[in-house]
Amino acid sequence: MSDPVLMSDPVQCPKCGYANPATAYFCIHCHALLIRRCPNCWHEQRQGLVCEKCGTNFALAAELALEKSQHEEARIERDKFIARTLTVWQFALLPFTSLAGLVRALVMRVVSGLLTR
């Protein structure tokens, strides 16, 4: 019995011309993309930069995804910077904030001592 992949027509790579099995997503020889999948509807097609099913432009969708990930990375870096800055400020202000608590406790003790006399 023969393999069904071998019986189907081979797909020629547009980049190097190598004959690949019909089920290959990438060229076995040069690793070029043979099947494109739409990021919107997941339709698979061999040719074209616009989805045959929903009309999504693959290049535009990839550019938008890259831009979105760059904005997300920038937001994460900004949040990390703010968190580090707040931590440094907390350490820098620690002597003053703990001293303020001590002074507050002493004042309360003195005031409560004066009121109980």
Give a structural overview.
The chain is 54% helix and 7% strand. The chain is mostly helical and 117 residues long. The chain has one domain (35-116). It has a two-stranded antiparallel ribbon. It has a two-stranded antiparallel sheet with strand order 3-4. The relative contact order is 0.06.
Please summarize what this structure is.
It is built from two helices and four strands. It has 117 residues and is mainly alpha-helical.
Q: Total strand count, please? A: 4
State the helicity in percent bands: 40-55%
How do the strands of the widest beta sheet line up side by side? 1-2
What is the average of the pLDDT values? 86
Give me the number of helical elements: 2
> H/E order of the elements?
HEEEEH
> Structural class per helix/strand content?
mainly alpha
What is the terminal-to-terminal distance?
A: 106 Å
Count of discrete domains:
1
Task: Report the principal-axis shape.
Answer: rod-shaped
Largest sheet: 2 strands, antiparallel
**Radius of gyration from the alpha-carbon trace, in angstroms:** 33 Å
Strand content: 5-15%
Low-confidence segments:
1-7
Record keyword descriptors for this entry.
117 residues; mainly alpha; disordered N terminus
Topology:
Blueprint: H1 4-7, E1 11-12, E2 19-20, E3 36-37, E4 44-45, H2 58-116
Antiparallel strand pairs: 1-2, 3-4
